Structure formats: structure tokens, C-alpha cells
Amino acid sequence: NPFWIRANREYMLTKANDFFSKEGLLDNFLFITNNASGDNEATMEYLRKFTTIVEEGKKRDFTLILNPLEKREVGIIPSPGLRKGLETFFEKYKFPKEIEIDGLEDLKEYYQNLSQVYGYEVDIPEFTLIRQGDGLEERNKLEEVKILYEYVVEKYPHDLNSYARLADLHRRWGNYNLSIKYYEQCLERKKMPFIERRLNSLNKYLNESAAYAVEKAIRNSGIDAGIAKFQELKSDSQNKLYFSESDFNTLGYNLIT
Questions:
Q1: Which residue in 47, 86, 228, 248 has its CB near the most CB atoms, within 10 A?
Q2: What's the rounded Cα separation, in Å, for the pair 184 and 251?
Q3: What ranges do the domains of the chain cover?
């Protein structure tokens, strides 16, 4: 109850009367919990006066919700009724599991529509972006995955998931400079051994693996050039590049996907 502070009561009523006496659209709501231990009769009387001002005012689409506590609870500990009410009101904030998106624009549209309902701009939750990105990747919508994670990097630059996923995605595509960039940006924000291992593994692949030499030949001149490079390296007794079945398996998978 905002009227428990004696010094502010008259001021708040004056401002409320001035505001609600003017016509206009106010697509929003105000939720006031009252009957707490600090609410004496004077406090409740001011709340009743405020309620009258709102009800007789000229603002359209505004909702005032009073939540009287059954027991005079101490302090501002939220009651179960308050929590249930908030969960009910904001139940659509969590993106529905039954909706399948095709990309970032679908998420933007959903939360733009929700903004109209709530009366303020609602950002796409960070966790929702990551989860939906993973879902798109499972469906092999990799270009949309890239767009979505780039949006996360811009919107939530502290989010480590987006850097790691972009690094892995560009590594899969053979965009190794970008992959290294995102691994390093991730590590700048937090040192994580498994990300360091991925970065070290990529650098070793680029500098020491025969599979990378074959990959470059394939990407530059086609599969026949890659086969020729493989045979050349295999027959060269002076070759210092290592051969790894795992590297070649990964290369083959990335090329066909």
C-alpha cells in the first residue's frame, strides 16, 4: 500500500486526481496489496480515496486491482494470492511450447503482440532465445539459427551461450576466423576450460591437421582436388601434418550438411 508513508499521502492523491481527471488511453494496470501490518485506518482511508479517484476518472482501459490480505502480514512478504495473481497475469510471458517458430521474426511478433496486452514493451527473454535457437538447429534451420544468435549477442552481450553456439556454427561451416572470434569473445567474458579446449582444438586443426589441408583443397577446387591432396600427403614421407580419423569424419559430416 503506497499510502502507508504519511508524508506522501496528500501529494500522491493530488497527483492522482490531476492525472485521472484528464481523458486518455492508459492500457495498463496497478496492483496494490493492502491490509498488511503497517496499514492503519488512516492508510486504508487514503487508499479508498485513491480508488474513488480512479473509478471516477476518465482514463480508458486502466485496471486497478486491490489485493487485501486475509491476515495482517508483517512487512512486504508477498502472499500466496499475490503470487498466484501475478503468475496468472503473466502466464503468456513464457513462450508456449506448442508454437513452432521458423525464425527470430516469429519471436519478435509474439512479444510485440504481448507488449500491446501488457501496456509496455516486452523484450524476448534471453533464455527463450537460446532454447528456440536450439530447436531451430535441431531442425537444421542453420541460417535462422545464426540470425537469432547474432541478435542475442547484440541484445544480451553478457550471454555466453550465444558466443559458444555461434563459434560452433561457424566452425561447422568452415568460417574459422569467425569461429575463433566468438570463442575468444566468450572467453573474454568468462574463462571456461571447455571453451578453451574447443579453441585450442580448432587452432591445432588449422595448423597441424592433414584434414584441414584436404578441406582447403576441396573448398577451393572440389572433391577431386581434395582426394589428390590426401594422396599427396599420405605418400609424402616428409609430411608433418597429423592424420586423424575423427577430423576426417567431422570434415565429411560438415561437407554433406
A1: 47
A2: 23
A3: 2-89
